Fold each of these.
Amino acid sequence: MIQDIAPHLYHNAYLPRAPREGDQVLLCRPNGVFLREQPAAYPEALRLSPNGEHLRYLFAIDETAFYLWEGELPVLDAFPAEEGWDWHTTEIFRFLEPRFLGFAGITGYRLWLWYGSNRFCGRCGKPLVHHDTLRALSCPECSNLIFPTISPCVIVAVTNGDRLLLTHYAAGHSNYRHYALIAGYTETGESLEDSVHREVFEETGLRVKNLRFYKSQPWPFSGTILAGFFCELDGSDEITLEKEELSEAVWLTRDEIPVPNDHSSITNEMIDVFCGRFPS
Ligand SMILES: [Zn+2]
């Protein structure tokens, strides 16, 4: 999965420091991050800003700190296209090698989105400022403290003997075109288990039992924390499709399920687990 970057270690503690040699900078724009794909790298912090100006500390992986760039973009002239530097959509982070750089890229991009969406206090309307010691924004007027938003979501593998329930999203709901599992946000006042039962029923009309938690996964593409569950069909296997969200929901046997196109998501890992292909 995208967060599985061993032997590298992700250090999420908010410990801002001045840039050192080897530290890297994420330059972001809507659905785009500036990088070199081969060999993968982000612009070096000391090359962009030797004194640390315009750099917002994000996190570290091993000894390497990652920053967001908060200055002007013409600075990119120092990183020419002839040397492989370019803008890429966030889709690249599903595949970028080494994987810890893909994880750094999408995690930093999510924080960039969050910073950009939280410039003013939602309570009193005054401009927010960066907190000194926390990864948070604070309001100097009313002391409102805003932390990065993470939405809980369930991913559900519904099994029926040798068959697994797989879906395709409707065109207007998601750009993801490969097989998916049942997925949905947890609502206020709801447990993760309640979300499993509700989402499966809403999307397919099916009832389930014997829920078993599998693993969780941070999924910065959508700002969610995903909780993966296996469960068994309870009762009829007749599907009533929720057509706003799904274009298809089908029961496939292990032999009929294709090998997933990438291994960044908990969805694809769970499909492989069901098929006996994980760990590979
Ligand atoms: Zn305020």
Amino acid sequence: MELKDAILERKSIRGYLDKPVPKEVLEDVLRLGTRAVSALNSQPWEFIVLTGDIMKKIGADNADCYVTGVPEDISDPPLDGIYRRRMIDIAKQLFAEMDIARENTEKREWWTQRGFRFFDAPAVILVMTDDSLEDAPTNFDLGAVVQNITLAAMEYGLGTCVEQQAVNYLRGIRKYLDIPEGKRFVVGIAIGYEDPDFPANRVVSQRADLADNTTWYGFE
Ligand SMILES: Cc1cc2nc3c(=O)[nH]c(=O)nc-3n(C[C@H](O)[C@H](O)[C@H](O)COP(=O)(O)O)c2cc1C
């Protein structure tokens, strides 16, 4: 796949076929992904890859935490201004495609719970790092590796959705997995073969024009 095509065609996939992803393919994706840049080549990423029953149990536990009002272990920071507007815009696009009306709380709850169940993908990559590392350079490096993984996945015909929801609750993760002390969860990446009929997968998110975020000097 051409790099430019992968960059242009990548989008968050929130509906997957019920088709397992071979471990070897996920290994290839992670090997390619971890060619990412990192500060001082520190490679501050660690991955836990889940599939099958254990993934379902953790997804169900996440959804249960949400439904029963367990406080989140990790929360999305609040957004203001243009950043909040963009968040609202993407939510509107998703709800429109999914035919979820604003007042339909039942369907909204269903949608949110799907997110906590990793969008019912066949696999999820949980990304964590070491607590001893400084947040700023580490978060930069983690962003780079996550983007690389989403692009590498496309070479294997796989879709992805980076999701904070995957690690908002850590109860199930701690219950079913053996997590050493001193680790910090960052994000999850749902991964699998795209369901071409799932409406939310039609959403193409907007981007600001370069004129809104780029300043040029010395070009004329
Ligand atoms: C750090 C991070 C956390 C995200 N968390 C979620 C999430 O919890 N649920 C979700 O549906 N999408 C989540 N997304 C996906 C974004 O909504 C998506 O990348 C953005 O709207 C742009 O759309 P695109 O990926 O289709 O280009 C997350 C993306 C990032 C980078």
